[in-house]
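Bench notes, afternoon.
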Amino acid sequence: MINLNQPLPNWSIESIFGNEVPNNSDFLGKPTLILIFSLGCPGCVGRAIPFANRMVFENGKNINVLGIHSNFEGVDFTQEKFEKAKEDFFIRFDFFKDKNFNTTFLDYGAGGTPHWLLLDKNGNLVYSIFGSDPNNALLRLDLKIKELFQ
């Protein structure tokens, strides 16, 4: 269970590209944006990944961005598909696989994909929202991120 103004429970993620799996505490000191996504989700690849890339490009020194690929429908993606997606979508943030397809997805109360979690510099959850509509979820998320920088 997650609660606003509280730290998230530890995630259960696995490396895709051989990089070390970080701990929640590795991201303390600046805000963290977590994108729970799936490569099989049109809203994720069409709007959420580009938004996360923009956050890295515009605010990379001021915010951590982490992706968790969660396939709650249980379809596994091959290593080649992950590598191709990283290249095709110019993914600029580290991303990992959710353990057992959906462990962190469920632990973090995701409403589907994409789902966003925004943490303050102390690791406390300040915002959680589902979706990728530019006039709703992404606009609200952008405003919340700007508030954290003030």
